[in-house]
Amino acid sequence: MAWNWQVFCQETTTNEHVPGCLAGFAKGGDQTYLNWIITAWGWTLSVALSALVVALVAGLVVGTARTLTNNPVISRLATAWVELFRNIPLLVQIFLWYFVLPGIFLPLREIPSVVLVVLALGLFTSARIAEQVRAGIQSLPRGQRYAGLAMGFSTAQTYRYVLLPMALRIIIPPLTSESMNIIKNSSVAFAVSIAELTFFSRQSGEETGAPIEMYLAATVLYAISAFVINRIMTFIERRTRVPGFVASAGGGGH
Amino acid sequence: MKKQMWALAVSALAVGAAFAQANDTISKVKSSGAISVGVRESSGALSYALGDGKFGGFHTEICQRIVSELEKSVGKKLNVTYQPVTSQNRIPLVQNGTVDIECGSTTNNAARQKDVAFLNTTYVEEVRIAVKANSGITNINQLNGKTVATTTGTTSVQHLRKHERAKSVDFKEIFGKDHADSFLLLETGRADAFVMDGSILAGNIATAKNPADFKIVGDVLNVEPIAIMIRKDDPAFKKFGNDVIAGMIKSGEMTKLWDKWFLQPIPPKNVKVGLTLSESTKAAWAGPNDKPMEDYAKK
């Protein structure tokens, strides 16, 4: 198999070789495939990171709500949320947001597709993060909740000062996988016209006749992105570890 | 563990090399008594699955004619297998011998001619614009400020980009995951136009809820010769195939096939595609050639 990495220096309309691969950014007109893949990477990261913010906020709220044992209405609503977003495939959810909901609620048509995709991806992931938050809170000894209440804290204060600070630190390892997943899951955004890495590889592969090179390049960028997220999360995990409570690498459990 | 990996890699290479050697299709078919025909599962009326492992379409039927002529010439009944291929794997599968003749919807272009060979052009695809019938749009210059849909992974995206740059028409592009999605973009009003191969547009309109709501308008944006693909460096088989095609054109059988697949109701839904024989295709039949797409752009 002969590799043809030169394709990245080709212009995207004429397929002519451009000296100095990155010329496109300066001139504005001629764009090479290298310019394009970098732009596509930018889209992948912006979609994934925005969706991660949505997912963390919604997941935290919903996950906490599921553990509110003294408020069954709210906790059932939260359970319904989790089941709704967890039981439908992500690609189907994206199409629901893009085609079905705007058909029912007309104002949604004005919203750019990137916002819809961030919402879809974010809420899908929020259901999974909510479950982790719930598991984190429920893994704490029951005595912690009682201790908070015995101190005279309200429920909100018990969560704010006692339960969440512990629970959130315990669940950082599963949150790491979720954050890496969101980078990879963002690849479905190509289905609603976001020019991200998957879109790039499908399109440029057809244009250049070098699909394998294009897929490999996109694969490397996905892997790098997910790995950087992994390193950042590991750093956070190390800095926020509760001494003696979370198993340290190689050490014993609590 | 490592040794096993090596053994695996070496045997994979050996298998690859063995496949790559078969270059004389006619004698290969003669000795094995089998031929593998590459088909597409959804290339419109050119080649598509009928269900039950059967395939039909304009190009598929031309291939079936070539195969039956081949049976006559080698003097025995061949064991024909239909191998569905995709845009991503069709060229490697033809190169490594898994597929002897590919009858899908492959554009003959200069880049592909480096890897494979093409029979004479049997169908010339025209890139056109589909719009809603009541939109009042009649050509591409009216698309200024509008949204244009096309399908990810097609050459139409590149044509649009070229057009936008050359004519400085400023439109917004959106991309469907596949042709059905792109058509949905037009149907739901997310896009004002859908730019794609004429046969795909006609096929999607034919199967739409209200075919009368849509029409194909404007100039031909680009033409692409679509041809049957075979392995490279096999002049005997290429001549054989081209002779069959020339015979079909001469006898009028080709026109009949066009009528059957593009103007009459076709299975499974019994809907008409409704695509009349274009001037470009007529010209390709009048002067058979295997010129790549790039040669069409020059004139």
TrEMBL record, chain A:
Q: Which InterPro entries match?
A: AA_ABC_transptr_permease_3TM, ArtM/GltK/GlnP/TcyL/YhdX-like, MetI-like, MetI-like_sf
**Major localization class:** membrane
Give membrane topology per the record: Multi-pass membrane protein
Report the subcellular localization: Cell inner membrane; Cell membrane
Q: What's a BP term from Gene Ontology annotated to this protein?
A: amino acid transport
Membrane is among the record's keywords:
yes
Its domain of life reads Bacteria
Q: Which residues cross the membrane?
A: 40-63, 84-105, 111-130, 151-172, 214-233
List the molecular function annotations (GO) for this entry: transmembrane transporter activity
Q: Show where the ABC transmembrane type-1 domain sits.
A: 41-233
Keywords for this protein: Cell membrane, Membrane, Transmembrane, Transmembrane helix, Transport
For whether the record's keyword set contains Cell membrane, the answer is yes
What family is this protein classified in?
A: Belongs to the binding-protein-dependent transport system permease family. HisMQ subfamily.
Its recorded name reads Glutamate ABC transporter permease
From TrEMBL, chain B:
| Keyword Magnesium attached | no
- GO CC list: extracellular region; outer membrane-bounded periplasmic space
- Report the leader peptide range: 1-22
List keywords of the entry alphabetically.
Signal, Transport
What InterPro entries does the database record attribute to this sequence? Bact_solute-bind_prot3, Solute-binding_3/MltF_N
Q: Which residues form the Solute-binding protein family 3/N-terminal domain?
A: 34-265
Its family? Answer: Belongs to the bacterial solute-binding protein 3 family.
Protein name per the record? ABC transporter substrate-binding protein
